[in-house]
Specification:
- The protein is mainly beta.
- It contains one helix and 15 strands; from the N terminus they run ββββββββαβββββββ.
- The strands form four sheets. Strands 3, 4, 6, 7 and 8 form a five-stranded antiparallel sheet that branches.
- The longest helix has 4 residues.
- The radius of gyration is 17 Å and the shape is globular.
Length: 178
């Protein structure tokens, strides 16, 4: 989940071993009482990874923390829930991340605007959620630009850049082409 300009971009990938009828994104301001936000029809593909996305307008949400989870309803009637994701409106509105070029070939460059100094753990995560690479970087108040030249080992596909500053997490999606 990534927040930008009062919209939360929600992306997920699933490997279904049974036919999924639909996926419902649920939102909560307290982490316990969830309401349906979006419902997306599942594809009837078994044992292949499928990617989905939705956008949630949170401009009317007054809570500084928003919780999301994904409810999956299978064709056989069984329901399962994902782990709960947390999005901080107050923290992320002052942070901006931009990846370029996108798509990435062998070189990844990104800029991050931060409102304070600190250290960050930066992960590159594949579409299945597996952490592929891990970096530690110093972040300064203002505009920061980072460049990594070791992307040629990544397979073609969708990846996520996850930046954890200890106070919040920023995530941005990027594509790799070979």
């Amino acid at each position: 989940a990534v927040i930008f300009n009062h919209s939360v971009n929600l992306d997920w990938s699933v490997l279904c071993r049974q036919e999924a009828d639909r996926f419902t994104i649920e939102r909560s301001s307290d982490g316990t009482k969830f309401t349906d936000v979006h419902t997306i029809t599942g594809r009837l593909i078994i044992n292949e990874t499928e990617s989905y996305s939705a956008i949630d307008n949170v401009s009317a949400i007054s809570s500084s923390v928003i919780y999301y989870r994904l409810r999956t309803l299978l064709k056989n009637g069984r329901t399962s829930y994902s782990n709960i994701l947390t999005v901080r409106k107050d923290y992320l509105t002052n942070q901006v991340i931009q990846i370029f070029p996108n798509p990435v070939k062998d070189h990844l460059q990104f800029s991050l605007v931060s409102d304070k100094n600190g250290m960050a753990t930066i992960l590159i995560i594949d579409a299945s959620g597996k952490s592929i690479r891990k970096y530690k970087e110093k972040i300064l108040k203002g505009n920061n630009t980072y460049s990594w030249n070791d992307m040629s080992g990544l397979s073609t596909g969708i990846y996520y850049l996850k930046i954890d500053t200890g106070e919040g997490v920023l995530t941005a999606k990027f594509n790799v082409i070979n």
